[in-house]
Amino acid sequence: MKLPKGCTLVVASHNKGKVREIFDLLAPYGITVKGAGELGLPEPEETGTTFAENAILKARAAALATKTYALADDSGLAVAALDGSPGIYSARWAGETRDFTLAMAKVARLLTELNKTDRSAKFVCSLALSDPDGKVEVFEGEVHGHLEFPPRGSNGFGYDPIFVANGMHETFGEIDPALKHSISHRANAFKKFAAAVLA
Ligand SMILES: O=P(O)(O)OP(=O)(O)OP(=O)(O)OC[C@H]1O[C@@H](n2cnc3c(O)ncnc32)[C@H](O)[C@@H]1O
Ligand SMILES: [Mg+2]
C-alpha cells in the first residue's frame, strides 16, 4: 500500500523512546505524525505470539480508533544463549514500572546462573502499517551484536546500554542517536517500510 500524500500517520506506541526514534526516522518524509499517547489511545494487550502479530494488533487498534493510517512497532532483544529470550517479553521483563536496570540485571543473572559464555544477541523490530480499514502490511528488521555488562551510556532506551552492534565497541546507550538510526533493527525495518509505502 502507499501512504496518501498529506495524510496523518498515528504512531501507535506508548514508549517515549520508540516514538522519538520513529518521529526522527519519519522526519525527512514530510508526513504529519501523531503519537498514540497524545491522542489518548488505549494500550492494547499484546496477546500475539510473534513480534509481527503484536505489531499488527497495535496498528489495527489505533487505525480503527482514529480512522487514519497507523504505524506500530513491536520489538525486543533476543539473546542466543537464552533461546531468544526475552524476545516478545522484552518490555514485560522490566515489570509494571518498566525498570530496565532490573531487566538488564535479569539477563546478566540468567547468563551467569546458566553458565553461558556466548553473549550473542540481536534486536528485532516488526513494523505494522494499518490503513483506516484495518488492512495491514508488515516490515521486519534486525541488528546483530553482543551484550556487555555492566550497562553503559544513557542514550536510547530499554536494553540499549548492554547492546554492542557487530563492528562496534560502544553500546547503543553510548553511540550518537543518529548512528543508531542508521543501523538499528528499527532503521532496517524502516528502510523497507519507506521503500514500499513512502516512495
Ligand atoms: O508496545 P508499545 O506501546 O510500542 O511500547 P513497549 O515499550 O511496550 O514496546 P514493545 O511491546 O514492542 O516492547 C519492546 C521492548 O523491547 C525493548 N526495545 C525495543 N527496541 C529497543 C531499542 O531500540 N533499544 C533498546 N531496547 C529496545 C524496549 O525495552 C521495549 O520496551
Ligand atoms: Mg508493548
Summed up:
Keywords: Hydrolase, Magnesium, Metal-binding, Nucleotide metabolism, Nucleotide-binding. This is dITP/XTP pyrophosphatase. The protein has 199 residues and is of the alpha/beta class.
Key phrases:
binds magnesium ion, 199 residues, metal-binding, Maf protein, 5 helices, nucleotide-binding, alpha/beta, binds inosine 5'-triphosphate, 6-stranded mixed β-sheet, dITP/XTP_pyrophosphatase
What features would you describe in this structure?
With 199 residues, the chain is an alpha/beta fold. It has one domain (8-198): Maf protein (Alpha-Beta Complex). It contains five helices and six strands. The protein has helices spanning 16-26, 51-66, 100-113, 177-183, 185-198, and strands at 8-11, 32-35, 69-79, 120-130, 136-147, 163-165. A six-stranded mixed β-sheet has the order 2-1-3-4-5-6. A hairpin with a 5-residue loop joins strand 4 and strand 5 (136-147). The protein is globular and about 50 Å long. It comes from Rhizomicrobium electricum. Keywords: Hydrolase, Magnesium, Metal-binding, Nucleotide metabolism, Nucleotide-binding. Belongs to the HAM1 NTPase family.
SSE inventory with pairings:
Blueprint: E1 8-11, H1 16-26, E2 32-35, H2 51-66, E3 69-79, H3 100-113, E4 120-130, E5 136-147, E6 163-165, H4 177-183, H5 185-198
Parallel strand pairs: 1-2, 1-3
Antiparallel strand pairs: 3-4, 4-5, 5-6
Helix pairs in contact: 4-5
Bound molecules: inosine 5'-triphosphate and magnesium ion (MG).
EC number: 3.6.1.66
Active site: 74 (proton acceptor)
Binding site for Mg(2+): 45, 74
